[in-house]
Structure formats: structure tokens, C-alpha cells
Amino acid sequence: MATTDLDELLSRVSMADRSAFSALYDATSAKLFGICLRILGDRALSEDALQEIYVKIWHKSESYIPGRVRPMTWLITVARNHAIDVLRSRRSATQGQSDDDSALDRLHSPDPGPAEQLAQKDTRAQIEACMDELSEDKAQAVRLAYLEGATYAELAAHFAVPLNTMRTWLRRSLQTLRACLSR
Amino acid sequence: MSTDAEYPEDDAALAAEYVLGLLDAEETRAFERRVMTERALQDLVEAWQVHFADLADDLPETVPPAAVWTGIQARLFTQSEPLWRRLFLGRAVIGAALAGLVALAVVQMGWLEPERPAPFVAELASETEGQVARIEVDPETGRVAAELIALFPDPGRTRELWLIQGENAPVSLGLLAPGQVVALSVPEDLRPGLSGALLAISDEPEGGSPTGQPTGAVLAAGPITAS
Q1: Per-residue pLDDT reduced to its tens digit, B114-151
Q2: For a designed S-S bond to B93, which of A62, A116, A160, B43 qualifies (C-beta 3.0 to 4.6 A apart)?
């Protein structure tokens, strides 16, 4: 579904329009369910998470600002952060953000900025290309953090390096990634 | 506060760590304090959100089982959240640009105060569909918040809400919108007799009944009761 259609649906949902909510669910639930399954790796957990995610979308849709980021970016972020929260609370990890009331949700500045420019273009090929420029284990570390909610301690264990080394190494990779994405 | 388009490399990495959830609780709080005031950091966070979300955008899609949607609806729509609050939210949402204007409008329309309970409610039910509409009525101000939740009209038709007091002819309160909360009002002279009066919904042509009386089928009805 086109970005403009999703924008329209989300703004109607923010006005408590149930038919728009139903249409939004039809258009996006397969993608968000796919993300839950990838992150949680368990069908029942993913079904519960998806339910929570759409309850959040219903309540928080007014914090989505059209034109700032793509609507799908906003939806994916809500879904990913919730799924990671579920995963981490099950692992009872102590690190990390406590819930998904962060970042995108709270950034209300209406002024146009670089992110707005990002919203206008399809950036999907870019991240893949830039991840390919990282060495394989570094790209994997980024994916583990984003898609599996891995903490520094878990990454350090996975790659069998000291925690500080892990952090230095990932920060450097993120800087490299940033440089590539800015090109 | 920096407005430079170029960010220190450290901040670029820090913003990414924040988005990935790699910072510990203390670092997260410190970073969030900075984000509140530093525009450049906000932009970095959003840019990372966009790029990382792209990583998830290509994952295979899977259609969820129907029970998920049923569960969402049960969670959101069976417990009754006060309609006044939804009306308020609906308006509050019009956009950041309009925020000042909206706040002013809400102050002037004092009845939109979200916490103020509606003294009277009505649940309009039909024999086949169960509950069709939720209505809240404030007999003092005559304000009505009404939401049509089932029996949505066919194209070219609409749903009209009627007030019926005793043996009197029905009085139109206005048109309902499918799935949305609308604000209507009861004429002043009818407000004293609201408790125990009936509300009914009829099927009407677009624009409402042309005669001032119900012309189509009466689809649902219910009494106004103290909440």
C-alpha cells in the first residue's frame, strides 16, 4: 500500500475511526506479524505481541506525524520495539530501553529536517548496500541487536570477545555505517 | 544546541546504540535528556529508526490468524472508554501545527473536558446485531457524544439519531458517523425530560430525513439511563 494511503489511514485512526483501523490492520498486519515471528521465533508469543502492538497503534497513532518518516517506518518501529521488549523481559535482561515510548514517539518537532527528506525517498536498498560494506560479523552484530534485541553482553558472548572490545568494535561499525548511509 | 548538518561521529554511534537499545538505563536517560533539546540528535535518531526499520521491511510477511484481530477488537472496543475522552482525543490530534488553536477551542467548549463523566448513557441495541451505538448525554448542557459501532449504512444512506419522550413525536438529534464519535446536542426545552426517554436510530437517505420524522426502518433503540 502506498505511503500516502497509509498516512491517510493512520490519521483517521488517530481520530478513533474504526473502519480505518480495520483497513490499516488488513494492509499491515502480515508485515508486522512477520517481524514478530522473526524476532520472537514463537507463534503464540508473536500472536500476543501483535495484539499488543495494534492496541498501541490505536492509542498512539496521534504521535505519528505525517511526512516526518514513512508510516511503515513508524509501524515497524512500534512493532520491533514491542517485540524486543517481550523478548528481553523473557530473558529478564537488565539493559536497554524499558518500553517503546521512546524516540520516534516523542519526537514532535514539526520542522522539516533530514529525516523528512528520508521520508520522501525509498531508502530500503541503501541499508542493505551499506551493511554489505561491513565485514560479515559486524553486519551480523547490527542485525542481532536490531532484530534479536541482543545486548552488548550477549554480543560479546556470541563473538567471544571482551565486553569493552565488543562495544568499541560495534561503535566503529555504526560510524562506518553512518558514513555510508550519508553518502 | 547544534544545528550543523554534520554530526560528531560519537553522536552518530550513540544515537544508533540508543535506537538499537544497547545503552544501559543510565546512559539511556542521559541520552534522552539530550535528545529533548538537541535537534541534531533527534535527526540522527530518526534517521537510524528509518534505516533500521528498512532492515525489517524486507522480512517475509505472514498473515496472522483471525483470532488476533478478534482479540484486538475485544481489547479495544468492548470495555467502554468514555466517549467524551475519545471526542477530546479526536480533536487533540488534528496536528501539532494546530495545537494552539485546538487548545483554545477546547477551553471554549468546556464540555469537552476529558475527565468529566457523562451523567446519562444509552446503549442502543438491535435484535440481530446486539449493541449498535453508544451514546452519552449531559442533561445540563444538552451535549451528546454518539458513536455508531455497527449496522453501518450502505452507500447513499445514513443513520439518524432520534429522541423520543413519552408520546411525543421523535425529534432528530442529528446524523451518526460509522465508527466515529460525533458531538450532537439536545434542544434546551427537551433537556428536563431526558432520563428515561428513548433514543432510536433510523435508516435515512444521505443528508438525513427529508421530512423531519423518521422515514426509513428503525434499526435500534434504547433508553437513556443514569451512568
Answers
A1: 445 567 888 888 777 777 888 888 888 888 888 888 88
A2: A62
pLDDT tens, position by position, B78-127:
645 566 655 655 444 444 434 444 444 343 333 344 445 567 888 888 77
Given this model, what pLDDT does residue B7 score? 54
How many Å apart are CA A181 and CA B9, to the nearest integer? 13
- Per the structure, the complete domain to which residue B28 belongs is given by 9-57
Q: Do B54 and A54 touch (CB under 8 A)?
A: no
Interface check A178 vs B, CB under 8 A: yes
Q: At what angle do helices A71-91 and A18-40 cross, to 10 degrees?
A: 50
CB contact under 8 A, A115 and B47: yes
Instruction: Determine, yes or no, domain membership for B33.
Output: yes
Contact A60, A105 (CB under 8 A): yes
- Eight-class DSSP state of B178: B
Q: Can you tell me whether residue B213 is helix, strand or coil?
A: coil
Which of A17, A104, A114 is facing B49, going by the closest CB pair?
A: A104
Distance from CA of A35 to the nearest CA of B (A): 7
Whole-number Cα distances in Å, A69 to A53, A65, A118, B54, B222: 19, 8, 7, 12, 45
CA distance A176 to chain B (A): 9
> What domains, with CATH codes, occur in chain A?
1-111 (1.10.1740.10), 122-183 (1.10.10.10)
In DSSP terms, which residues pair with B125 in a beta bridge?
B131, B221
Q: State the smallest CA–CA distance between residue A62 and chain B in angstroms.
A: 5
Q: Is residue B141 part of a domain?
A: yes
Q: Band the pLDDT of A92: cuts 50, 70, 90.
A: low
CB B158 within 8 A of CB B180: no
Instruction: Report CB contact under 8 Å: A16, B181.
Output: yes
**Closest by alpha carbon to B73, among A125, A22, A167?**
A22
Q: Would an 8 Å CB–CB cutoff place A145 in contact with chain B?
A: yes
* Same domain assignment for residues B42 and B131: no
Dist. CA B22–CA B9, nearest whole Å: 17
Query: Which residue on chain A is closest to B43 by alpha carbon?
Result: A115
Predicted ipTM beyond 0.85:
no
